[in-house]
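Justification of computing resources. Each target in the renewal requires a structure prediction run like the one illustrated here; the chain below, 507 residues long, is used simply to show the kind of job we budget for.
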Amino acid sequence: MKQYLYGATVNGIQGYIFRTDKLVEIAGASVLVKQVCEDLFATMLNITSDELRQQKGLLLSAAGNIKYLFTEEQHDDVKRVVREFPKRVVEFAPGITLSQAVVTFDDLLKEEHLHQLEENLKIQRNKAGSVADFAEQIQIRSRQTGNPAIEIDHDKRYLDKEVVAKLKAADWEEINATNNIWTDFYGRQVLKKNQPFDLEKICMTKSIDYSWIAVIHVDGNGLGNLLMKTSNTLGKDFAVFLPKFSRLLDEATKEAASNAFSTTKKVYKFDKKMEPARPIIIGGDDLTIIIRADLAVYFTKEYLMEFERLTKEKFKPLCTEFPEKGLGTLIEQGLTACAGIAIIKYNYPFHYGVSLAEDLCAQAKNEQQDSPKQSSLLFHKVLSSFVGDFKELKDRELTIRNVKGEAYSLFYGPYYLHPSGDKSNIGDLLEKVKSVQGNNALKSGLRQWLAALDDSRRQADILQHRLLAKHGEAKEFTFLAGQKSTDTTYVLEVTPIADWLTLNSIN
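Resulting structure tokens:
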């Protein structure tokens, strides 16, 4: 019997959501992406979004991606979806472009079919899309996007269809809220008055002159490889396993984010009148969130811990339901994830911060040789207007070269949730930051030591000796260690001191 594996993906989802630095538009864009993948796609099947989640054919509906398995009896349905869904998307959420593909097969669903679908979607993404918003040259255009304007807001801004749709999506009613991102994140009734609609408002939850925010991007490790192995292990049962696995993974991601934020709230006891965070993407194995900078590392640590625990807990029933040899060893330990944290000023060009967070996440994965990869994070505080990839940034801002030709690295990460050997520990990082935080004399001495390292190793060693004699806690510090990064071109030693001072500077 023929089956049709349908896939759709929002093209350039990060670009669509983060092409503005206005938080209200970012929030509205994230709502629209979620609604396209859930509510709007459900209407194509003449069901509700709640009913969609219970469909056996639903393999994935999260983070701008849809995968649905149609049967031979649903041949007309898949044709109608392919024909009409892109038009519905453009009308519902102007600015979103959709790529679609279908893989037809007679056999059972296998990982190779998912792989073929992804290849077909890549081909579709490379094709030029049609322009849906034409206008005469005389028409006034949005200064922000260059598209034809249809409204003027209270600030005399000319708004195009895309911005209007984003603002409308962000302006939800409390009684009948459609923004499930909030309930996914907080796990309770959401009060509109407590939600920040401006990046500066997030900063002001700490103090009126605080100006640092963090963009956190988290991605699961080895998911594609895991699906390939489970497909080979389960054979005909893979088509039954995959939708259940996807739903449980989605639940684990949402619960992990909600639990991590609740724990962070209890520990830091921040102002209840305004939330210091704005979730943007929560689904599948992905998380993207904007949060006040001083909370970022602690929140990420809690999220990684909860993600590991919940995936392990939720996958247990699958091991019982599919007791085939080998499945338990693949999923019984749950999943791990890596995170990138870009710390920026709230008025810094926002899309650069998002790009840096993704780059840091990828770097955290690339730095480790473990298989499977362990949960870890990397963070960086942007102190200049320099824009480039992280490799270039590491050479430019995280390397000390003194006049004697000595080179030292300030890149001490990634920081691991469960370290072994010489790997850095997230918990130890937070403890060291805490021990330095209340001691201004020690902080000043550590800054002087870093400055001396830029001059000569001998001078740095003299200052280190003084610090050890004056401050007892410094005896537990690592000032210099052997290079831990995979990139050991010319730097042989690395220090964590800069990371401690960086986190202290935003607390």
